[in-house]
Amino acid sequence: MDGVLRIGNNPINGAENIFKIIKKLKNIEICETPPKYKTELYLIIGALNNIKISNLEKVLKWVKVNSKIILTCEDISDPSSKGDFTLVMPRHTLHMTNYNMKSNYYSLGKPNPKFARSILSKYKDIKPEVVLLVGDSMNTYIRLAVENGFKSLLVLSGNTKKEGVNFYVIEPDLILESINDLKTYLKKL
Hints:
This protein is an alpha/beta fold. It has 2 domains: 3-107, 3-Layer(aba) Sandwich (Rossmann fold); 114-188, Rossmann fold (3-Layer(aba) Sandwich), CATH 3.40.50.1000. It is 30% helix and 19% strand. The chain is built from 6 helices and 10 strands. A 5-stranded parallel sheet has the order 2-1-3-4-7, with helices on both faces. A 3-stranded parallel sheet has the order 8-9-10, covered by helices on one side. β1, α1 (15-24) and β2 (28-30) form a beta-alpha-beta unit. The longest helix has 12 residues, at 53-64. The radius of gyration is 19 Å and the shape is globular.
């Protein structure tokens, strides 16, 4: 299949693996702007270090030519090393461009069911209900666990705060302040 894929010059947050795989494919051209010739177009959006109007304009160019959009993750925000949140994740970037043009996307990141299939195929003797998936985001880790029959543990040291849990339809099986509390919790069992 011929196609054009757009990947940032400095891919981060999982996109580096996609970039390596795509570079090996034949009949694929990686470019910054949509080409003038007719082809199947893909736009891959990963996390950015900061929001720039020029990046949003690039996304709009690809959306306007009906590119198929692939996100490297579902998160809207990500905690920074300072404890605050960055809002430059793929869904947030696409959300900002959707004020001008509506677009659909496919996410390669959590909660994509490929993660559950990968876990269960690697450990064939383990039943889904005995897998404990630990994560800091209701929309990705906990959703992946709930939708695939895994037990879920939400840690509040990342994307989700305790007061925000009540706004979701899904519920984690267990909530801890930090992953460091897991050892203490397991000793109590």
